[in-house]
Amino acid sequence: xxxxxxxxxxxxxxxxxxxxxxxxxxxxxxxxxxxxxxxxxxxxxxxxxxxxxxxxxxxxxxxxxxxxxxxxxxxxxxxxxxxxxxxxxxxxxxxxxxxxxxxxxxxxxxxxxxxxxxxxxxxxxxxxxxxxxxxxxxxxxxxxxxxxxxxxxxxxxxxxxxxxxxxxxxxxxxxxxxxxxxxxxxxxxxxxxxxxxxxxxxxxxxxxxxxxxxxxxxxxxxxxxxxxxxxxxxxxxxxxxxxxxxxxxxxxxxxxxxxxxxxxxxxxxxxxxxxxxxxxxxxxxxxxxxxxxxxxxxxxxxxxxxxxxxxxxxxxxxxxxxxxxxxxxxxxxxxxxxxxxxxxxxxxxxxxxxxxxxxxxxxxxxxxxxxxxxxxxxxxxxxxxxxxxxxxxxxxxxxxxxxxxxxxxxxxxxxxxxxxx
Amino acid sequence: xxxxxxxxxxxxxxxxxxxxxxxxxxxxxxxxxxxxxxxxxxxxxxxxxxxxxxxxxxxxxxxxxxxxxxxxxxxxxxxxxxxxxxxxxxxxxxxxxxxxxxxxxxxxxxxxxxxxxxxxxxxxxxxxxxxxxxxxxxxxxxxxxxxxxxxxxxxxxxxxxxxxxxxxxxxxxxxxxxxxxxxxxxxxxxxxxxxxxxxxxxxxxxxxxxxxxxxxxxxxxxxxxxxxxxxx
Lengths: 421, 232
Prior knowledge:
heterodimer, A: alpha/beta, Rossmann fold, 15-stranded parallel β-sheet, 4-stranded parallel β-sheet, 12 helices, 28% strand, elongated, B: Potassium Channel Kv1.1, Chain A
């Protein structure tokens, strides 16, 4: 291939597709023309192991600095390799005016070093005033970061963090124009209040005892996922289409959403939710199209209780737009109580339901369960798929086998629709 | 081979090695260069593409055709009608012996006849008449049409296969795409070249792969090598 006869613009365009620092460094050495093309790079990425085998005279911070100093208008910088705050400060001095996207592996959750003389890595980030997106891995935020306002910051993502409430609040105050906020694997948060006028997408995952409280006042919120809170208040929900509430470690006991008129998807997961919370969520989500329920137990105190009876007819009448229903946990049993089907009137239909996934955990009340499954098939005029997941039933009991036979018979009679997993 | 737009005007493109290709205007104007020629009204007769060899031009035309088809497939409209029109067009082309012969005669009278050119003309003719493979194409296209979700994926896969060629062919495509100003092709080939660079494991390998001689002085070379010693 005769690269040399290509016009400069094409060579530059080709090289602009490289962003791994290793590739870029190698290309710097290929020829003068290639070296001269590299200043036009927009994005530079240093993988984790960039300097693992390095034994030269320059330290990694300096090597990064030297590369950055040759680039004219860097827009994106991703550094997964280790660095110091002094190094970061010098880099940002070079690129701060053009830098739009910054991603750093901070890796200092376990470092409890008191950086008294030098500013912390977090503080240094403030120099990148024009950032539009910021993603940080392994952050220690126990003191409020010394951040001025990031006027252009639309997206903030933090993965793996130890936070203190006031520090986190201070950080959010510096990002008033966020539209996307993601916090994954975060420890240390107890109570969080988020007031962001433009926030549309928010994903929060809190480690710990599952007893965080969250208050969200974001009028434009469209997509919200929360894990690890026991108390949730979201006032303005006119745009909320997608909502997921989970709690792996604790109990969900208070939810306050108000009418969820735009909600299309609702997921409720966890070991234990107070019944008040469950029934309110079900009541507010009357427009929902896809409902995913995987709550194992209810109960207001320590004792884990099964769900009370849920009236089949009432449930489907109050969720008329339901197209897809995932029934895991205790919900199915609740729909299969003795009186669940007593209110069936002529003309009752489940109009929109197309897909159902049911998890069956035990052969108790087998008759009612079969009856409910049959009702779903009977009244679900548009039902296309029913998946029955049978989970580890103790097969020493003869009723288990009978139940399984019944389910198989149901599948046989409704071959096109029913599937067993 | 489109039916939904324009008068179905056909342009004649001449490759560097004097082969004539008849291409529908809608396909050919994927090239900005040809588009400008057409808009300036200079598209009478044959458009000479002096730097593009027939082998490459054939591939380029295939690329343009695919992209015109893709846009059409994804147009909401009476697709059934389109399929029928397209089918009949192909059959027409295939059966249109009259104009093929005429075309070959014109070409013969323009250039000096040597053995290999005639052979190529015959190959080209037989391609046009190959009803069997055309029908297959229609069938494939119809099936693709129904595969709404992965249309974009399908195009991506097709493009990746298209650029998965030896370096010389890739280089020829690159030059042709640049000369003819076909953005989609240029971008895809450039991305492929960048991928080839990424796979090289050393500066030497890059130089070897692309036939580049270092123009640094030995001192400069040593200095740079020292600076990038960390990559090894």
